[in-house]
Amino acid sequence: MIRLKNVSKIYGSGAQAIEALRHIDLEVPQGSIHGVIGLSGAGKSTLIRCVNLLERPTSGSVQVDGQELTRLSGPALNQARHQIGMIFQHFNLLSSRTVYANIALPLELMGMGKAAIQERVKPLLELTGLSDKTGTYPAELSGGQKQRVAIARALASRPKVLLCDEATSALDPQTTGSILELLKDINERLGLTILLITHEMEVVKSICHRVGLISDGMLVEEAEVGEFFTSPRTRLGREFLNDFLELEPPKALVERLEPEPSPRHHPVVRLAFSGDAVASPLISRLTRDCRIEVSILQAKVESIQDRTLGLMIAELIGDQEQTRAALAYLERHDLNVEVLGHVKRDA
Ligand SMILES: Nc1ncnc2c1ncn2[C@@H]1O[C@H](COP(=O)(O)OP(=O)(O)OP(=O)(O)O)[C@@H](O)[C@H]1O
């Protein structure tokens, strides 16, 4: 449905040139919700704006619904853009127009008659929960209501794709939740393909099916959301996850960690486990089968969509052979194991 192939974007030229996107390949299948997460300046906005050609890529191919957009310009591009709705962090509503007139605007620009517009707008007001706000002006609306108007306006031309540019970043957590619910509902009811960019793991966790991680203009990791939250493959992915889960070893311990194992040091590990492993008494089996002791430093259980994820930071106490065997045991049982370092025991 959305297919980017080898997309690069360079702003400026010569010594001032900024490579905002480097050789991006991205595929978002019809009907799925795909998130792209990254730090500030990573290239998220540039990426999403390249999909509807608000920014023209310097090179590469952009296909939406099988149509190559980079070959289009003028009226043909405008026509193709009717297939692509977009919402923004700051809503971009016209303050001089009522809720109804904001939603109707793209249809007026398409030359649609009044009666046909009314037929389109009414169900959109219902879908977005704005039926009682028809004649209200944006200044009298809350942030969440403004974003609902923006969503209804984006859907007015019956697009196949919705692009969300940090759509919940200006909203409080509760309103964010209700807007994400609305997007999920629209995705399910209308089969709308959604590409969203965000810097918030909560957004990815709540509604995305797949997620890509962008860093320095490159997509460095891509995975199903459940997989990304259980076993991110890159260091940046692990940093995003650890910040989100607030699961870091105590500072005093981090300062004592040595990178290499030795006979007098014990491994400190971060364990992530999902599925059956969450429910089974793995740690007690580990202590029994490998004859080690486990000191649990932190632990929590998270629900990620329909998966349960267990996380733990623990010290494995035993001689080198025993702790090596324990690490192999954990990996054999499909736990994601990361050795954070090795710590010397005082006793
Ligand atoms: N119009 C522009 N002209 C020149 N450079 C730009 C332009 N837009 C973005 N950039 C640069 O391109 C890089 C990527 O910016 P972009 O806005 O895409 O990142 P982002 O991940 O969306 O960041 P943020 O979350 O802070 O909005 C940055 O180095 C930025 O300074």
Descriptive terms for the model:
37% helix; Rossmann fold; alpha/beta; elongated; Alpha-Beta Plaits; 4-stranded antiparallel beta sheet; 31% strand; 347 residues; 13 helices; binds adenosine-5'-triphosphate; 2 domains
Write the layout of secondary structure elements.
Blueprint: E1 2-11, E2 18-28, E3 33-38, H1 44-51, E4 59-64, E5 67-68, H2 74-81, E6 84-88, H3 99-109, H4 114-127, H5 143-155, E7 161-165, H6 173-190, E8 193-198, H7 201-207, E9 210-215, E10 218-224, H8 225-230, H9 235-245, H10 251-256, E11 265-274, H11 276-279, H12 282-290, E12 293-304, E13 307-317, H13 320-332, E14 336-344
Parallel strand pairs: 3-8, 3-9, 6-7, 7-8
Antiparallel strand pairs: 1-2, 1-4, 4-5, 9-10, 11-13, 11-14, 12-13
Helix pairs in contact: 3-4, 3-5, 4-5, 5-6, 12-13
Describe this structure in words.
There is one protein chain. This protein has 347 residues and is of the alpha/beta class. It folds into two domains: 2-233, Rossmann fold, CATH 3.40.50; 246-344, Alpha-Beta Plaits (2-Layer Sandwich). The chain is 37% helix and 31% strand. It has a six-stranded mixed beta sheet with strand order 6-7-8-3-9-10, with helices on both faces. Strands 2-1-4-5 form a four-stranded antiparallel beta sheet, with helices on one face. The chain has a four-stranded antiparallel beta sheet with strand order 12-13-11-14. The protein is elongated and about 80 Å long. It starts with a strand and ends with a strand. The model has no long low-confidence stretch (mean pLDDT 92). It binds adenosine-5'-triphosphate. Adenosine-5'-triphosphate binds next to strand 2 and helix 1.
